[in-house]
Amino acid sequence: LSYAQQKKTPKHETRIYINVYFKEAKPNDTLYLCLDNLLFTVLEKYKKVYSATLNDQGYFRFEASVKEEHGYFTILKRRTFSHKRSKNLISITCPYFWEKRDSISIKLSYIETEAGLYSTTKFYGHGAQKYNLFNEIDSLKLSPNHITQIQTYPIGFDGNILKYETLDKISDAIQARLSYLQTNRKNLSLLSYNVFKANIVYSVQSGLLQTISSFGRDSLVYRDKEFQAKFKHRLKSSFDTSNNYGIDLKGLSNSVQFLRFLYKKTRAMSFVNTGHFSIDTACKEIINYYQKKPRYFDIRDLIVMMHCLTTERESDNIFDFYSNIKTVIKNPEYLDILKNLELRAPGRHLRKYFLEDDKGKLRSIEEFKNKVVLIDFWFKGCGGCSSFYKNTLSKVEKSFQNNSDVVFLSICGDADKTLWKNTIHQGDYTSNEAVNLYTNGMGYKHPIVVENQIWAFPCVILLDQTGKIVFFNTSNLYNHNALFK
Hints:
By secondary structure, this protein is α+β, with helices and mostly antiparallel strands. The chain has 3 domains: 2-127, Sandwich (Immunoglobulin-like); 161-342; 354-484, Glutaredoxin (3-Layer(aba) Sandwich), CATH 3.40.30. The protein has 15 helices and 17 strands. It has helices at 38-43, 128-138, 172-183, 190-218, 225-237, 249-253, 256-274, 279-289, 297-309, 318-326, 332-342, 383-399, 417-423, 447-450, 480-484; strands at residues 2-4, 14-22, 30-34, 49-53, 60-66, 70-78, 89-91, 96-99, 103-112, 117-126, 354-357, 362-364, 372-378, 406-412, 435-438, 459-463, 469-472. Strands 12-11-15-14-13-16-17 form a 7-stranded mixed beta sheet, covered by helices on one side. Strands 1, 2, 5, 9 and 10 form a 5-stranded mixed beta sheet that branches. A hairpin with a 4-residue loop joins β9 and β10. α3 runs antiparallel to α4, α4 runs parallel beside α7 (256-274) and α10 runs antiparallel to α11. The longest helix has 29 residues, at 190-218. It starts with a strand and ends with a helix. The model is unreliable at 1-9, 82-87 and 141-154 (pLDDT under 50).
């Protein structure tokens, strides 16, 4: 990863060059480099992607322009096996934190099998110590002198956080990693040191938070009101992010693990307070928490946007919700995203799109006016898509099979037409009774996918008889009884 200022490069931009030596590479292979901003990196939604093919020297060379002096990069490739989505990109490295002046070579080995994914990464050159140190800590390749026992919560922990007064104190797992980092921090910049520190602390804390929030979601209802009140207070005060082990603000705001932790915590509070996930409650939680902490507004805004971009959007009035959020958010890029999200709010019309059906005829959603329309987006190899169809959609579809006022549109995101045609008759994702539509070879680049910001599958949209959106991928569409109603 090297920087070089070129004559044709604008002064506010820098060229990044990355050379990747990929052990399993074959002629004409292509790898992809993701250089997304922090929001999309945390969400693992790859938007800013560059490609490189294997060159005559035996490596992949990427070139990209960036305006920042640090950030994250991820290397991706296309999936191998036919039961997976053939056009789908999969990360073959974790997100690595880069800084200006890093100049490294990457040697990468990656194997994809039916049983799972296996990869190793080794870095060489100026700044390589940082990346290799991250790998060592992440994979727990620590000597016995540095680590004796790894545990994320006390032995016998049943999820009842009221029993453990010292739960928020630094755990053995965190201490071992921090000790190893401190011993080997030579040549790390202060920023890298704090980012690594935050990633260590909050990756371990996230696992514990998951256990506690599961207890609150699944078991709290069976306890008395006094216990419930104590639990909610304890959860709210647990993992106080101001107790950040000496990590500075810049380290926290650039830590993928810290941001994911804060996102999970606000979700957990939403479940505990309302009994289900509510985007209103989750965002209110984070906004109130940082209300009098303007230095943390960038973190606050990013967490709010993470909630806005998740697949569950349940609000009494999502349009008003977006309008209110826009009065809080100041980041121009986030405001543009919110503007696009508003297009999916109830009461809006989907614009006119044309897609090919299984008989080769171009169809438009407009031709189904005066009918209730349920649109389901899927792709072959998507476990969630198959599960949703078999457990929910197929049952609802069967209930309305004799009702001509209800139409089920099934849109496949795969670009391979033969794959799509073979799949629609297998009963795993759709049925012959549905109107099966194909994205005309464009796959995820089709306007209906791009313009409606559909980043995750399955995606379900319910339209009323006038063609207006009633629900856009809200959680109630994935519940059999709620969807039937």
